[in-house]
Amino acid sequence: MSVLVIAEHDNAALAAATLNTIAAARRLDDDVHVLVAGAGCAGVADAAAKVAGVGKVRVADDPAYANQLAENLATLVTGIASEYSYVLVAATKAGKNVLPRAAALLDVSPISDISGIESADTFVRPIYAGNAIATVQSIDPIKLVSVRATSFDAAPEEGGAAVVETVEAAGDSGLSAFVGQDLTQSERPELTSARIVISGGRGMQSGDNFALLEDVADKLGAAVGASRAAVDAGFVPNDYQVGQTGKVVAPDLYVAVGISGAIQHLAGMKESKVIVAINKDEEAPIFQVADYGLVADLFQAVPELSAELSKS
Amino acid sequence: MKILVAVKRVIDYNVKVRVKADQSGVELANVKMSMNPFDEIGVEEALRLREAGKADEIIALSLGVQQCQETIRTALAMGADRGILIRTDAELEPLAVAKLMKAVVEREQPGLVITGKQSIDGDNTQTGQMLAALLGWPQGTFAYRIEIDDGEMDLTREIDGGLETVRLKMPAVVTTDLRLNEPRFASLPNIMRAKKKPVDTLTPEDLGIDVTPRVKTLKVTEPPKRDAGVRVGSVAELIEKLKNEAKVI
Ligand SMILES: Cc1cc2nc3c(=O)[nH]c(=O)nc-3n(C[C@H](O)[C@H](O)[C@H](O)COP(=O)(O)OP(=O)(O)OC[C@H]3O[C@@H](n4cnc5c(N)ncnc54)[C@H](O)[C@@H]3O)c2cc1C
After folding, report:
1. Cα-based distances in Å from A307 to A206, A303, A304, B19, B238
2. Does residue B59 lie in a domain region?
3. DSSP run (H or E) holding B37
4. Smallest Cα–Cα separation from A37: which of A71, A76, A84, A3?
C-alpha cells in the first residue's frame, strides 16, 4: 500500500508544498517514497531523504527532466506507478500540469486538490470555488491525487534518513522543449508559505502604489499578493494572484487592501487564521469574512499602518 | 488548420451556488448557466488565430445535456464555424470527457485543441492534460501567450513563479489561463447568423466510449461558515487588536 510523492523542485531546492504533500502521504500509509526527477538534482534528493517520514527517495537525474516537462515526467511516473497504491503531488501549477497526464496514461481518474482524507479511498475536496465541499470515493486500483498544501501541516524537514536510489530515466518525448523562464524576483517570503500575507486589489490604482503594501510587508516579514483585477490591470505579475484560479493561501494573518471580496478571491484566502480588510466601502463583501474590518481610504490607512509599525 | 475548442456549460460565475438539502450536489434548477469563462477565452483565441490566417475552421465541442446546445450557440455567435454536441445525461468526469474528445479528434483531425485550464464548477484542472496524454500530443497548459509558426508553437504559460515558455510540436492541446486574451461579445447579427450554423449531435454510444465514473461523489456539503468579526475605528486600534487579541504580529 505504499505511496509515491512526486517532488516539486527547481533542481536546487525542494518546494515547501512537497513537505505538506509528504504529510498527507503519511496519513495514507507509513511507506512513503519520494520521486525526484530533475537534472543535477542530487541536492534535492538529499533534502528529500532528510524529511521525516520518507522511507525511500528515487532519483531520475537526466536532462529530460531539467525543466519538469509534463510529457517526459508523466512517462517516468507511469513507468513506476504500478509499484504503488497512491501517487501524490502538491496541487500547484506544476503538480496540476503533470498528474492528469500521468493519470490518463494509466487510465485512472485523478482526484484534484484534496483538503482532507476520510479513508483509504475517500477524499474531501472543495468545488465551486470552495462554496461546496465534495466527499469523493475512488474505485481505481491506483489513486492519483493532488494535495492542497494549506490543508495539511508540513512534514518536518529533518528527522528522516531515507535510502536514495536511482530510477532509470524514461527518455525524451521530443514533443516539447523548454525555451525560457521569466521568474518574479523577490526577497520576501513565498506567497503560499508566508506566515503573513498582505494583498492589494483594484483599489490600489497602480503598480507603483503597491510600494505602500511592500513597505508594510517588509516590516511584518510578509508576502505580497493581489486580486485578479490587480493582476489583469498589470499592477503586479500573474504569480501574485490569490483565489479560485490563482494561489491558495492560509497564513496566520491575511490583510486585504482595496479588495472587494468576490467569491473567486475568497476561495484562495478564507482559510487564513486571521483576516483583516481595509476598504473604503463599508458594504464590501470582504467584511463578511474579516475578523477585523477597517472602513478607510487605503491611501491614508496603509501609510499610517506603516508608520505605527515603525514605532513599535 | 482546424481548431477544436471545448465549451462547457456551467453555473454562471456570478451566481452564489447552493448545496442541495439532500447533499447530492448543488442546486442547478432555475440557475443561470453560462459558458465556462476559460472556454470563452479558448474560443476567442481560436478566432484570433483564424483572423491571423493560422486557422481556417473552428469547431465548438460541448459534452453533456441537451441544453449544452446553447453553449455551442454562444461559441458560434462569437464566430466559431460549426458545433458538435456529445449528448448524454450521465455525469461526465474529466477522464470520460478526455476519452470522448479523443474520439472526436480522431474523426475531425484538428491541428490544435483548446480547452479551459479548469471549469469553475468542479475546479479539477484535468481535461486538457488527459486529452493530450491519450492522443500522445504535447500539452501547453495555463496559456498566457501563443505563437504558431511552421508547425510549431511557442507557448508562454503562467507558472507559480512567473512565466515560462515552451516550444511544442503540433498538433497540440492548449489550456487557457486568464491573461491569454479578453473574449469578445457576440453582436446581435452574429447571434442571428449563429442560428443557421450546423451543429451535429452524437452520443457516447455512437463513439463507443464507456463513461462510467471511477470517482463517486458520496456527498456535497456546505463549507464551514466564517463569522464576520468586528469593525475597528482606527489603525492604532487595529494594531492593538492584532498584537494583544489575535497575537499574530
Ligand atoms: C473565471 C474567473 C476566475 C477568477 N479568479 C479569480 C481569482 O483567482 N482571484 C481573484 O481575486 N479574482 C478572481 N476573479 C475575479 C473576481 O470575480 C473579481 O472580479 C476580482 O476578485 C475583483 O478584484 P478586486 O476586489 O481587486 O476589485 P473590485 O471588485 O473592483 O474591488 C475593488 C475594491 O477596492 C475598494 N477601494 C477602491 N478604492 C479604495 C481606496 N482608496 N481605499 C480603500 N478601498 C478602496 C473598493 O471599495 C472595492 O471594494 C475571477 C473571475 C472569473 C470570471
Report:
1. 21, 6, 5, 45, 13
2. yes
3. helix B37-51
4. A76
Nearest CA to ligand 1 atom 50: A264
B28 in A contact zone (CB under 8 Å):
no
- Of A217, A244, A241, A242, the closest CA to residue A231 belongs to A241
Q: What is the pLDDT of residue B150?
A: 87
User: Which ipTM did the prediction report?
Assistant: 0.97
The CA distance from B100 to the nearest CA of chain A, in Å, is 13
Could you please report the per-residue DSSP string of B82-126?
A: EEEEEE--SPPPHHHHHHHHHHHHHHH--SEEEEES--TTT----
Say if residues A259 and A203 touch (Cβ distance below 8 Å): yes
Between vectors from CA A30 to CA A27 and to CA A31, what angle results, nearest 5°?
125
A148 C-alpha to ligand 1 centroid (Å):
23
Cα dihedral value A169, A174, A179, A182, nearest 10: -50
Residue A31, number of CB atoms within 10 A of its CB? 17
Q: Look at chain B and report how many structural domains it folds into.
A: 1
B191 domain residue, yes or no: yes
For the record, the C-alpha cell of B40 comes out as 470563452
How far apart are alpha carbons B64 and B50 in whole angstroms?
A: 27
B121 interface with A at CB cutoff 8 Å: yes
Report if residue B116 sits inside a domain.
Answer: yes
Domain that holds residue B25: 2-244
Q: Is A293 in the pocket of ligand 1 (CB under 6 A)?
A: no
Mean local confidence (pLDDT), B117-121: 98
Mean pLDDT of B30-50: 98
A45-55: average pLDDT: 98
**Arithmetic mean of pLDDT, B19-45:** 97
Residue A1 confidence (pLDDT): 66
CATH of the domain at B21: 3.40.50.620
C-beta of residue B214 within 8 angstroms of C-beta of residue B95: yes
Residue B32 DSSP one-character state: -
Q: Is the CB of A229 under 6 A from ligand 1?
A: yes
Cell numbers 446581435 correspond to: B188
Asked if the structure places residue B93 within a domain, the reply is yes
**Distance (Å) from the C-alpha of residue A163 to the closest C-alpha of chain B?**
30
Could A181 and B216 be called an inter-chain contact, meaning their C-beta atoms sit closer than 8 Å? no
